[in-house]
Amino acid sequence: MDWGLKNRLSRIIKPEDERAVMLAVDHGYFLGPTEKLEVPRRTIKPLLPYADALMLTRGILRTSVDASFPIPVVLRVSGGSSIIGKDLSNEKITTSIKEAIKLNVSAVAMSIFVGSAHEHQSLVSLAKLVDEGEDHGIPVLAVTAVGKELEKRDARYLSLSCRIAAEFGAHIVKTYYCEDFESVVNSCPIPVIIAGGPKLSEKDAIDLTYNAIKSGAAGVDMGRNIWQSDHPVPMIKAVRAIVHENATAPEAYDLFKKLSAKTQTTTV
Ligand code: R5P
Questions:
Q1: Could you tell me the CATH number of the domain that includes residue 173?
Q2: Is 243 in the pocket of ligand 1 (CB under 6 A)?
Q3: Which of 174, 193, 229 to mutate to test the pocket of ligand 1 (most atoms within 8 A of CB)?
Q4: How far is the CA of 264 from the centre of ligand 1 (A)?
């Protein structure tokens, strides 16, 4: 692997433990002002110190994150459909590599839609993005299955999607946790990280994180289950405890409860 690419990757997946806690705040690119992400700066700022990397679009990066804050950026560079449009899978590359370089990003990210009407388009876009990324030392994160594709959230489908992403040269793949997640991880020769998906109870989101890490995930790229919590900072700290400190699910949930009780006392 080229030095620059390796260096950028190591900003995201920490070499000490080969794990990562990424904070996903790119939802607005197809969902608009998602609940609790209406004012991105307000949501993002308190969480920044606890995230290893931040995943977002260029618009939110420029308007809502201080350029002086030293956080590795994973830039979403695909889009083109909205939640009320005809077909969420109809995405293309929306941000150039030149722009990604100007923004000093550590990786670029795009979605692939295996099994959808636009499967071919998204996979060819991935191949081109990997070519461009390799040319400039920028890793590519492939995101599998959003929207309708989520209905197919089982190990067979997710293994297929993740493996195809790896075959096309992606450097990291983000997917969803499912039963028999080991088989997804074991058949994918690049690091697999999980999205959190729609908001769950904090306990369930912590269990999900623990199960994913136990099954071999390299970390999380989590959004709603962190910032839609009433206690986002305690939540990201609990997730970090699992990912980086090998905390068990009950230990992480106890930490969450302890920290949120403290937040409540200090804000009363
Ligand atoms: C989806 O394509 C986006 O990349 C989101 O960033 C991703 O789904 C992770 O966010 P969440 O944990 O809220 O599912």
A1: 3.20.20.70
A2: no
A3: 174
A4: 28
For the entire predicted model, the pTM comes to: 0.95
Pocket test for ligand 1, best of 21, 23, 27, 56 (most atoms within 8 A of CB): 27
Q: What angle do CA 246, 249, 252 make, to 5 degrees?
A: 75
Q: What is the pLDDT along the chain (268 residues), one digit of tens a residue?
A: 799 999 999 999 999 999 999 999 999 999 999 999 999 999 999 999 999 999 999 999 999 999 999 899 999 999 999 999 998 899 999 999 999 999 999 999 999 999 999 999 999 999 999 999 999 999 999 999 765 656 667 999 999 999 999 999 999 999 999 999 999 999 999 999 999 999 999 999 999 999 999 999 999 999 999 999 999 999 999 999 999 999 999 999 999 999 999 887 665 4
Of the candidates 6, 174, 214, 257, the residue annotated as catalytic is 174
Number of domains in the chain: 1
214 lies in some domain: yes
- Is any atom of ligand 1 closer than 6 Å to the C-beta of 221? yes
Asked if residue 257 is part of any domain, the answer here is no
Helices (DSSP H) in the chain: which residue ranges? 3-12, 28-31, 40-44, 58-64, 97-102, 119-136, 155-167, 181-186, 202-214, 224-227, 232-245, 249-267
Query: What is the atom index within ligand 1 of the atom nearest the CA of 224?
Result: 13
For residue 33, give its domain range. 3-230
| Helix pair 232-245, 249-267: axis angle to 10 deg | 150
Say if 259 falls within a structural domain.
Answer: no
Would residue 249 count as lying in a domain?
no
Q: Which residue's CA is the closest to the ligand 1 atom numbered 7?
A: 195
